[in-house]
Write a structure and sequence with these properties.
Length: about 220
């Protein structure tokens, strides 16, 4: 049999060591990959610049919090991927057992992502306003909430206020999930899944999305009158 308890223990120990205390800035000791750290810092810096913070000290603190979240998410995903490969390479379990353990690993990883997100938002809330935190979330997800929302409004200008609210609520939920993804592709996949839910909702409301999309494309090709 496979020793899944050992795998879970490894992930739990990692999570406890990776998740910082709320509202506390923790520097990365003896960075084994300074080039990667620089990439994360630059990514975080671009997000912070959109906030236009006048306090340089606070701006630096926010940058560190964001960069550390990126690092923690990447480490967690790398740990999960390594454990999955280990399970796949074992020869003392059948395919069904491996499948069950791999799914359990992925479920555990998702729960740990949620814990990281909770701690992360607590730390940000000690430094930023709710509106500024939303800006950070948008920065981490490439502004896909507004881009996708605008696309639906352009395609279906006749949406009611209630329908607009539901579409936006779906996209905001997508943003919360996409924040935890460790790559651009995964973030877009999350939004793709929620767009499917939105499309199902709008179809149930009587909208023909195929025709609406064709009509929008025709309007765009015709250009302004």
């Amino acid at each position: 049999m496979m020793h899944s308890a050992g795998i879970f223990a490894h992930l739990i120990v990692f999570a406890l060591s990776a998740v910082p205390e709320p509202a506390k800035i923790v520097s990365v000791p003896q960075d084994p990959d300074p080039a990667y750290t620089q990439v994360l810092q630059e990514r975080a810096k671009k997000i912070v610049q959109t906030l236009k913070l006048e306090d340089d000290v606070r701006a630096r603190q926010v940058q560190e919090v964001i960069a550390e979240q990126y690092r923690n998410l990447g480490m967690l995903q790398d740990t999960c991927d390594a454990q999955v490969k280990t399970v796949q390479s074992r020869t003392d379990a059948d395919a069904e057992t491996k499948k069950l353990i791999i799914q359990a690993l992925k479920d555990m990883t998702q729960r740990l992502r949620e814990q990281l997100r909770t701690r992360y938002l607590v730390r940000l809330s000690a430094l930023l306003t709710p509106a500024q935190i939303d800006q950070v979330k948008d920065g981490m997800t490439y502004g896909l909430v507004q881009v996708t929302y605008n696309s639906y409004l352009e395609m279906l200008p006749q949406l009611t206020e209630e329908q607009k609210g539901i579409v936006l609520a779906y996209l905001i939920e997508a943003r919360e999930m996409a924040m935890d993804a460790s790559s651009s592709g995964e973030k877009h996949q999350v939004f793709g899944k929620y767009k499917g839910r939105i499309n199902n909702y709008l179809s149930a409301q009587g909208y023909d999305l195929k025709k609406a999309s064709e009509a929008r494309n025709a309007r765009n090709q015709a250009g302004p009158n």
